[in-house]
Amino acid sequence: MRASKLSMLLTLAAVAACGGRQAADEPVPEPTPAPAPAPESTPGPVATSDSGSDSERMAREHAELIRAVTADLSTPIHFDYDQATVRGDDRAVLDRKAAILKANPNARIRVSGHADERGSDEYNLALGNRRAGAGKRYLQNKGIEAARMEAISYGEERPMSQATDEAAYAQNRRDEFELTAGGETLVAPQ
To answer: Which of 63, 69, 146, 53 is nearest to 108 (CA)?
Structure first.
């Protein structure tokens, strides 16, 4: 009670200091009580605007994964002069391809055999065919179904190098691998 009288006196003094008059018969309003403190709440998950950047980041990572897997699938293998036998140093390349194809059952590839320019057109087409068959057979022996692979020969018609030295010939004696189906859903092998 004392506090309310004191606040009334202070209010009257403030009004008098401002030069205002208050009617004697009007009661001075009591000050409004302070609002009750709001109950403390535990902070919940804060929504972030990073969900867009997260999905963009994931899309970029997926695109990079597809590029890397496609690059592994398209790595060529090479052959010795007048040979259609898979070289020892190319077995690891073919083993990676087999792992990728096993992890991606919808993926299909084309194996194209190539030869250098030495030899007749007919001979080089036949040699390219044997080389494509060797690459395909290797993958079949690793468990890849033959129906998922197509083998063709280009003989000497699509050289990697136009030069006419041994280094160029070595580049041209090769199998190339092209993804023909299933590229949009590629996953990396485990």
So the answer is: 146
